[in-house]
Fold this protein.
Amino acid sequence: MKQTKLLMGMPITVEVVAARAKDDIAAVFAYFKSVDEKYSTYKVTSEISQINDGLPKREWSREMTTVLDLCQQTKQLTNGYFDISHDGKLDPSGLVKGWAINNAANLLRDKGVQNFYIEAGGDIQVEGNNAAHQPWAVGIRNPFNTEEVIKVVGLTSQGIATSGTYIRGQHIYNPLQPGQAPSSVKSLTVIGPNIYEADRFATAAFAMGLVGIAFIESTPGLEGYMVDAHKMATYTSGFERYVV
């Protein structure tokens, strides 16, 4: 069973390989709706908007404190390239999407679901096999021609995230060089043990520019595929084992 809904400002697709999956899928969408209500910087009633309007730290929810701590931890792990501070405001969306997908996957696992696919805005978590009893096939698009898939990877229990400017325009910046948007890289895809790890490090690596793929290579548990501005692809040493 497969459903797609527009939530958190993007299409979210959930596919569960099971005869009766309606309630499981509904629970996932309900969870994403709750995440949007808490973390959307576009909703004046969200907790993150209230924090940006001056809500005292003692009134923050425990979950929000945990998420913002994770953002700070990611900043440290990426030598400052992952930074949620923008013009004096906090925007944790670069971490929240992957974190939320990972939580949704855990929700399905807790319900005993063994084979599923969750995609939110191009970031994907898979578990088990698809309906054909094969690994889930995920395509990597050509950033210069989004109708073309340039690589297909087969995944069974991993997360995959792509950072780039070809869908949403320029929305990732190098926090170490304010005002200078990364232009040397067009897309950078990261495969990780889960979508939380893949997503947060893909965002940071893209901000690093051409050295981002070397950062992914040096980070245990991650593999990556980068397309630069000259249409050249570079990938990590273990990436090819996923290619189908």
Summary: The two ends are 25 Å apart (CA to CA). The chain has one domain: 2-242.
